[in-house]
Amino acid sequence: MQGMVVTSHSLSALIDALPLPVIVIGSDNRVVAANPPIDAVLGPDLRGRHYITALRQPALLDSVVAAQAEGTPQVTRFVGRDGASDTHYRVVLSPADGNIVLTFEDQTAAEEVGQMRRDFVANVSHELRTPLTALLGFIETLGGAARNDAAARDRFLAIMEHEASRMTRLVDDLLSLSRVEEDERVRPREHVDMAALLSSVIKGLEPQLEAASVKVLLQSDGDGEMVPGDAGQLVQVFTNLIENGIKYGAAGGVVSVTLHPKAFHQRLRGEGVQIVVADKGEGIPSHHIARLTERFYRVDSHRSREVGGTGLGLAIVKHIVNRHRGRLVIESEEGQGTSVSVFLPSR
Ligand code: ADP
């Protein structure tokens, strides 16, 4: 076709306009054109080099040979190893007019999501299997050896109830988490009276407080403060935080809940309220703090299970706070106690 000759100069101009990393190999096996984004993948100054020295990885080199020999598009993978972590690319090699055009698509984020999903399923299965194994063991014992032993039966039934409630809690937390994730992008519409909400959460926790001999001190300098929020979800946030204070801070005997009035907070880049839930319990070693909001992350899994934890409480809290465009700050000192601050914007 006349007038359609693409010079190497205009070819460069064309691929420079593409956002994806692209490199073109000519029929003489040399790099004819390479756009700026490819520098981050293969390094700079590729033009004119033989493709073997430019591409280096065997799978990619084989695909070039195949694309040239067969004249059909090829797809392969390339792992960028610059910097701290690997970057995974899907590379499409398209023969075009004697040249091979290679397009690199960064798949790292998609692969991480896949990995997270696999880890999550593995974690959930593991968490459910432990109580299930216990239940099956007791059912077998009750049907056999302990069939006529009334004392053993009562004891085993109590343990079975305990294990079954653990599974119920886990399933409840999983459902909350998925509900919270579902509407994470929808801004809450209600307006919530924070002081009233905190009192009602504390009232609801009275049986647990009594059982653990822990007192709650509610200090509110923000009576009547209204914040935009989802009341049901905020109840969940403070229930989880105060419950953690009871579970891990019981030794200190007191959990304090403080509502600070509306003020400017750098963390919110604007006005908001701060609610602090603090205990004088065992505290958290500092290297764990950044990871506590990950699903199933616990400082001590055995201890967490013993006090009825699922490892999902803070993950749920974090999601809800994010949905409210708030900030969650966890501070702790081993042996001194833990203080968790929730900042919620007031508009
Ligand atoms: P769990 O159900 O295990 O309590 P969370 O997500 O609520 O799960 O908390 C994760 C972990 O963080 C807990 O297992 C515990 O190790 C630690 N943690 C949370 N709150 C406190 C606290 N107030 N004091 C000490 N450790 C805490």
Give an overview in words.
This protein has three domains: 9-106, Beta-Lactamase, CATH 3.30.450.20; 108-183, Signal transduction histidine kinase, dimerisation/phosphotransfer (DHp) domain (Helix Hairpins), CATH 1.10.287; 187-347, Heat Shock Protein 90 (2-Layer Sandwich). The mean pLDDT is 93. Helices cover 45% and strands 24% of the residues. Helix 6 packs parallel to helix 12 (313-323), helix 7 (194-204) packs across helix 9 and helix 9 runs antiparallel to helix 12. It is α+β, with helices and mostly antiparallel strands. Strand 1 and strand 2 form a beta hairpin. The protein has helices at residues 8-16, 39-42, 51-55, 58-70, 108-143, 150-182, 194-204, 206-211, 231-249, 286-289, 301-306, 313-323, and strands at 22-25, 31-34, 74-80, 87-96, 99-106, 191-193, 215-220, 226-228, 254-265, 270-279, 327-333, 337-345. The protein has twelve helices and twelve strands. The chain binds adenosine-5'-diphosphate. Adenosine-5'-diphosphate binds at residues 240, 244-245, 247-249, 279, 281-282, 284, 292, 298-300, 304, 309-315, 338.
